[in-house]
Design a protein that fits this description.
The protein is α+β, with helices and mostly antiparallel strands and about 140 residues long. The chain is built from four helices and seven strands, in the order βααβββββαβα. About 25% of the residues lie in helices and about 20% in strands. The strands form two sheets. It has a five-stranded antiparallel beta sheet with strand order 3-2-5-6-7. A two-stranded antiparallel ribbon has the order 1-4.
């Protein structure tokens, strides 16, 4: 768990209590745009707390690990501060510790031809089709 810098002002939405609903926390920390989206994500099974699937009313505590699946990738967040009201991004940023590993980079080969080289020959066209995954013998 990372330490909160002393010069950072604790947001007005921060709670003195020991727990807050997971859907409210996700919305307040600006992970999802609306509270209803956060609730829907939890109901769909896209949210886990400490590795366990949870319901929307599950109470998160400081030190918990929240996994949120967005667009097929998991965001792994450590809870540093409990928020029940939506705050500005800089204030929300101190409420969680982003532990998400970097997404894998996918390299897709791109066929490049020299400018001014004219139209591709039949052989070059077949090579381009093979590179793109087309069978040049199929009829379209």
């Amino acid at each position: 768990m990372s330490e909160i810098p002393e010069e950072v002002v604790i947001p007005a939405g921060a709670l003195a209590s020991s727990a807050v609903r997971v859907d409210t926390w996700l919305w307040a920390t600006r992970q999802l745009k609306s509270r209803s989206q956060a609730t829907a994500a939890v109901r769909a099974g896209h949210v886990r707390v400490n590795g366990e699937p949870v319901k929307a009313a599950y109470k998160v505590r400081v030190g918990d690990e929240v996994r949120l699946r967005i667009e097929g990738f998991d965001r792994i967040l450590g809870v540093n501060l409990l928020l029940n009201k939506r705050v500005s991004y800089p204030q929300a940023r101190i409420a969680y510790d982003d532990r998400t590993p970097e997404r894998p980079r996918v390299h897709i080969p791109v066929a490049m031809r020299e400018k001014g080289s004219g139209r591709p020959t039949k052989k070059e066209r077949r090579e381009l089709d093979r590179l793109r995954g087309y069978d040049s013998h199929e009829h379209y």
